[in-house]
Amino acid sequence: MTDALTLTRPDDWHLHLRDGEALAAVLPHSAAQFARAIVMPNLRPPITTAAQAQAYRDRILAARPAGSDFQPLMTLYLTDRTPPDEIKRARAAGVVALKLYPAGATTNSDDGVTDLKHCRATLDAMQREGLLLLVHGEVTDPAVDVFDREAVFIDRVLIPLRRDFPELKVVFEHVTTREGAQYVTQAGDAMTGATLTPQHLLYNRNALFTGGLQPHWYCLPVLKGEEHRQALVQAATSGHPRVFLGTDSAPHAAHLKEHAGGHAGCYTALTALELYAEAFEAAGAMDRLEGFASHHGADFYGLPRNTGTVTLRREGWTVPAAVPFGQAELKPLRAGERLAWKLS
Ligand code: DOR
Ligand code: ZN
Q1: Does the Cβ of 42 fall within 6 Å of ligand 1?
Q2: Nearest in space to 70 (alpha carbons), one of 104, 26, 101
Q3: How many domains, in total, are found in the chain?
């Protein structure tokens, strides 16, 4: 049994940092865990232009704790009207990707894409300029069962997208199903990668209903059944080079999760590597954690791997019950529970 694991400094390839007081509250947690993060653009209003992304990056840099070298990697929010011209400006501003939110699929997705047919010229420009497309892979058709929305997205949206834009790098974000894991690991398409969250590796949908309704386990895409969780663990621990870490840590004030119509999102930035270590250890695959957390994402994005290391130790600790979040409080996933691993 290993009691310590040293790995190359990891990155978070899918993160929600918000803005203002919320940004100030959560950024230190991610900066303590990760060297870089792909920052989601679903603010209100969303980050849709290169200029907005640059200004947002400056606010993130200004919110870093003293001495932190954490680097935000910026994204734009794709809409039906994102002009193809914006892609050159985005690349010049250091933006690395655009995020596809199907309109209405999740938090702050109202301005998202109603149909990818409106985006063809912009997707062409992205393919040319080498920007990635990050997808929230769920259809919003109300006739489709909420647990089937990811599998249907593969057939209706992802397969046609891959056919029409074969050179566009696509990240299928927060994959939650066996179908999603199989698509990425077996479709044999070198231009498609996937991120996996800690909650989808550790929990199945029973977690939402055990001991009463559990709003802190509610995120989108929603947790799936056990056979899906096992397929995700298999994909994460297989060493597959296009499968990598993306927490989807999504902070919401506790009072907005603990009420009717509660917001979707699990807050995992405080405990991310510890949670992934738990999932990898349970699968007997601690030796695969470094590739997943520190190598595969950088390689897929075409960015250098980090230098320097972090160390996880087997050292029990209790996750705080809550942390400050502006005027409100934020309850991390596993609040008040013991974790076996600690990042030192
Ligand atoms: O659970 C989620 N929360 N899923 C998303 O896609 C968005 C995120 C958020 O921004 O809160
Ligand atoms: Zn997200």
Answers
A1: yes
A2: 26
A3: 1
Give the CA diameter of the chain: 54
Q: Is 16 in the pocket of ligand 1 (CB under 6 A)?
A: yes
Kindly state the average pLDDT of the residues 38-46: 97
Candidate from 44, 106, 224 with most ligand 1 atoms within 8 A of CB, to mutate: 106
| 107 Cβ closer than 6 Å to some ligand 1 atom | yes
Q: Is residue 313 part of a domain?
A: no
Mean pLDDT value across residues 209-222: 97
- Classify 37 as helix, strand or coil: strand
Q: Which ligand is nearest to the CA of 221?
A: 1
Q: Which domain holds residue 64?
A: 12-305
Predicted local distance difference test score (pLDDT) of residue 105: 83
Ligand 2 center to residue 305 CA distance, Å?
A: 23
Q: What is the Å distance from ligand 1's center to 314 Cα?
A: 30
**In this structure, is residue 204 part of a structural domain?**
yes
Q: Is residue 301 part of a domain?
A: yes
CA distance readout (Å), 84 to 40, 80, 129, 131, 210: 20, 11, 11, 12, 47
Do you find a cis peptide bond into 221, omega within 30 degrees of 0?
yes
> Strands 71-77 and 338-343: what pairing?
unpaired
pLDDT band of residue 58 (cuts 50, 70, 90) is: very high
